[in-house]
């Protein structure tokens, strides 16, 4: 099965054996993760799509792949249009497509370990109206035909010391126990991998670039807990760290362990727990109370130790990025391409003995590839760095004390007036969000327009959110906060949350622009204020490309922001670099 056509054919043959007329294929694992282990890359194996969000439906005589606006171009480059219809989720949901395309009497299969219960109920209702039905499969048919499917990782767990976590695992579990008592619950299921890692102060290597272990947890109202991980992953240090209050059980026992909660009230997060967990608890006779995972908000609001660690990591990372930007300014046209430049940036980051991993696969986009906002370079798409173009690099590092995520856009040679105009508009939006002051209770969606206003005024926009949460040596994309108007306005911003600030502009087949820094929500003291106010502190420090800034377009306040920002860059990064790189940085940080 060396071709995607052969794989699709094999899946259809397996579907027929299983009595299915269709099957739904998401990018997901048993923990509703955004980034998944190699064993769970079923959509990529089946279709060739390499994005981090998407899904497909395969029927007997047709198939479709569903992506959001970030991947509109990428999906056409990677997935054969003769095999799959391209569907944008902004126009048609997968469930609606199923309702319109599933034949009457059809049985559509889904893996209950890869979908939420709410999704399954909605899909079932839609199919019922069409005279079809949804059925959970016992074995995923892709797993049945994927002959060289990788095994789940057995990498050892690692302890995240309290000196970086800022709070012990025992104290975190005590907080969860207090929450359970307040809610009248006996136990809660923690299924999200970063939640498990945070609650138990453990880390892992089971997903590329995200230091989480593959596991489940059940925390009880007395503060004790059961942690489900493959026994091969445990070390003596981890066992000692977890202590006697945590019962260690095999990952494979989790499904049957749920049946032990008969007659108990169990909290389950409907957004972060798969349908199979609900089904198992229901069949066991447990009373399920739908509640958000109690670690979600606590994890998002960083404590003082985590904030200080983040700042140290950002400063360290900013120095590595600055060395790279200096190198790029001198070497971009010396037979460089997207892969070689991304490797060079990784080399600069790797000079720090504190780097544990990258925080995601570097987005290295030259010229028109930069217009693919979540572009992932490979040998087939790799482009040379050419004069007269823009180069966009979105990258980050995983350090024991913090997770970084930063985007810079650089001119290669002489930029065009259009490039300068769009970059300056993106910069104006970035500044507007960075300077925002807002009352307690404000949600990210209310601030999103600040970053888009200068682009909107010119009739253009970008098809992604403006900001996402970031973990503390955890996931580079962390909820519940976000700065985006898509899908509702979202979670109130709280002091201690960390978000990205990343407006952009993308011109198809031409260039892409994005400016991204991480920002910390902090309290603002305002004389005469009649309510509690919040604002942002910028955490990321690396120079902007001044060749792309039209100073005449900036207001005095915006120009001052850039000058102040560059002063701080020189203050934070300058002492960490020397020689030609330092001289270059001083030139970049001169007042506009």
Automatic annotation (TrEMBL):
One of its GO terms (molecular function) is metal ion binding. The keyword Protease applies. InterPro entries: Creatin/AminoP/Spt16_N, Creatinase/aminopeptidase-like, Creatinase_N, Pept_M24, Pept_M24B, Peptidase_M24_C, X-Pro_aminopeptidase_P. CDD domains: APP. GO terms for cellular component: cytoplasm. Residues 533-592 form the Peptidase M24 C-terminal domain. Pfam families: Creatinase_N, Creatinase_N_2, Peptidase_M24, Peptidase_M24_C. Keywords: Aminopeptidase, Hydrolase, Metal-binding, Protease. Belongs to the peptidase M24B family. This is Aminopeptidase P family protein. It comes from Parasphingorhabdus halotolerans.
